[in-house]
Design brief:
- By secondary structure, the protein is an alpha+beta fold.
- It folds into 2 domains: 115 residues, D-amino Acid Aminotransferase, Chain A, domain 1 (2-Layer Sandwich), CATH 3.30.470.10; 151 residues, D-amino Acid Aminotransferase, Chain A, domain 2 (Alpha-Beta Barrel), CATH 3.20.10.10.
- The protein is 29% helix and 29% strand.
- Strands 7, 8, 9, 10, 11, 12, 13, 14 and 15 form a 9-stranded mixed beta sheet that branches. The chain has a 6-stranded antiparallel beta sheet with strand order 2-1-6-5-3-4.
- The longest helix has 18 residues.
- The chain is globular and about 55 Å long.
Amino acid sequence: MKTLGYYDGKIDELENMKVPMLDRACYFGDGIYDATYSRNKKIFAVDEHIDRFYHGLERVKIKFSMTKNRLRELLYELVGYTDDDELFVYWQVTRGEGIREHSYNDDMTGKLWVMLKPQPIVDMSQKIVLVTHEDIRYTLCDIKTLNLLPNVLFSQYAKERGAHECILHRGNRVTECAHSNVHIIKDGALITPPADRFILKGVAREHLIKACNALGIAVKIHPFTLEEVYGAEEVIVTSSGSLCLQAQSVDGIAVGGKQQELIIALQSYLLEEFRSATEK
């Protein structure tokens, strides 16, 4: 199969898949999702993503009977059905099906969706353009829910301005990007925002921190400001599909370029980690 869709036990090419109109995803975005990448039929950091996924289900009280081990096995089974060696692996569980009503019945059981499509991780040699926008989301940003309308609008805002991503800020405090985490290098140290209710605790963020520890790069976890972004030695964006991207500008202001060896070391470490974990 070139692409693959899965819904509650049914499998087909994505273009042929249909889901019930009564699934609460259709009305409320009532669900939790996660995603990573696979290469050579091996799913990168799958256990870390599954752990975060189940934590999200607990936070929003969605009942899902499948165990972590069975979900892991199923994802590998589905990846095995596909033709391509490099895939985007996405899954979500919605609260279930029912007539539209904000409250829900306690006997609802979660419905699993899976989407697979050919897609390699991003080439880290490219430098990216960023813009900024006030973070107008709610304060449950640490939960990876399907409620992504603000993120869609932020991403479109960036696209219309010729940018790759949008840095979000609450007042002057930087939080994260529309669909990734953001960090800066200052005085040779990595500064990353605390994993509180205003950001998603990205798996790629955790791997970046571990890479810094392995390479002897100091890590400081505390908030930073837009002014610090504009004046940073480097601005870094991380996500599961773009392990460590270096920014070239923010809001039209040139940034970074002052710790190139450090950037190359981090990118090389993270790429080798990904490749080693997904070798045949």
